[in-house]
Amino acid sequence: MTGGGFAVGAGRGASAGQWTAWHERISAERPSHDPDRLEIWGYTSRPSYAPGERVDLHVSTTAPVWGFEVWRDGDRFERVHRAVGLTGAFHPTPPDAASEGCGWPAATSFEIPAHWPSGGYLVVFGAERDGAAVTQDGFFTLRAADPGTRSSLALVAATYTWQEYNDWGGGCGYFSDRLSDHSGDPAEVRELSFEPRLSFRRPWSRGMIRTPAGVPRLAQPPPAVGAAVGVPAADWAVANGYSVWTVAAGWARYDALTARWLEANGYEPELLSQWDLDRDPGVLDRYDCVVTTGHDEYWTAAGRRTLDGFIASGGGYARLAGNIVWQVRMEDDLATQVCHKYAPDADAEFANPDRAARTGAFEAGHIDWPPVSTFGANGLRGVYSRMGGLSPRGPGGFIVYRPRHWCFEGADVYYGDVIGAELPLVGYETDGVDYTFRSGLPYPTGADGAPDDLEILALTPVTLEEEDHGCAGSILTIADGDLAFAAAAVGGADDPATRDRFRYGSAVITSMSRGDGEVFCAGTTEWGHALARGHTQCEIITTNVLDRFLGRRSRSEG
Question: Residues near 539 by Cβ (< 8 Å), separated by ≥ 6?
Fold first, then answer.
């Protein structure tokens, strides 16, 4: 989410002071500080490791004894390690834990065996007392011991985006218990404050790493005419004790879906985190294909430059993801993530001559580095569909305009087909480009930084502004907040004429070359969901892209 997120208020159909949705109860996830309540919370010392390294676990619990299990989450979900009978200890959580970390000591550690394969690993912390039991989830990515040996495909988990939606300890990039004003009439439209600094030294919110099967997604079927609009996924989260922000990002609902599909289809991806691209600028050197997926809204300049270098040197980049918007900065030995987002001039580095040190929207004037030049599309030229009053009855799928492109080979795609409408595939957040039509085909104008050779293969209209039709019971979550932000930050002024330039955007599938490499972009957060559902055309397109990219360097070397 680009602007205020879930932060606006009730539609015209709601009476003043009578909110009935989750908005009136929203708060960040944190311990209860009640010693009589059975709780356990924990986190790993780093987001990523290699075989042979030790994982420190920082744990606070009200139970006298606790344990943990480590599970590898791939095509098979299998337990690889277990420890029980550990002595419990409770540690206070500081009020600024979201921004500065918990500061808990390491409770125990374990060494990663050399034979564990690369992948996503869940650490399930568990505690029991008087017959009751609780669990909470940690997570780390495991890099390959010898990168590129088992597989030349790397999947980069969007851990920086996860962190912006992780509200554990008091806040996230969209909300802050510490900074928000909870006073006044809750039916009044107002913006909530956000945390510009977010620490990796704290637990993940409930729902970020594991969720039950079949939970609702943000992208929804079209509502009936006259029906109220809202966010059922958020309602479900709050009703079932999950952090509301985890419906929008995380391993469970997004990255894991693609990781499992890749393994099930024989690709054996080696998993990295975005943190790894900052830790080691050469981390991608031994791969032929890099994939990002789900919701990868936030990147550092350093990580983006690492990806740019990989592509320019001949790599193939498959972006099966949506909503690329923000530049973040890592501090404190890569432990703290900084993004001043809607208030970039509050950043101490706002005027730094090195624009890579600044934070905020990539497309904003103080950074002016449109994502399309790396990722194949721009976040603020697309965004919302099939959520609330944001194009709720839009096509729901990608409208194909160039069916003869190589990515559609074997997918039985015709001009004008709508791919994935039944899922829906286009939603909840997307990326687009500034375009024009000639002879029935879309072309980039280049006004948003799109290169001349970028091909728009499919294009679907989406919106940056939520419409209020006054249907009784509707709850608006975005309204015009994001439109106002884009007009001011990118267009230079929040006025009617500038809003008209940004109000309507697109979700696109694009293809382009960059240096000796190639980029394929399917600009939606729901592509992994389509793979998990076994959507035939999406599977064929993905296979075509990966097989082409995995053979690029061998063809060029031959």
Answer: 261, 265, 531
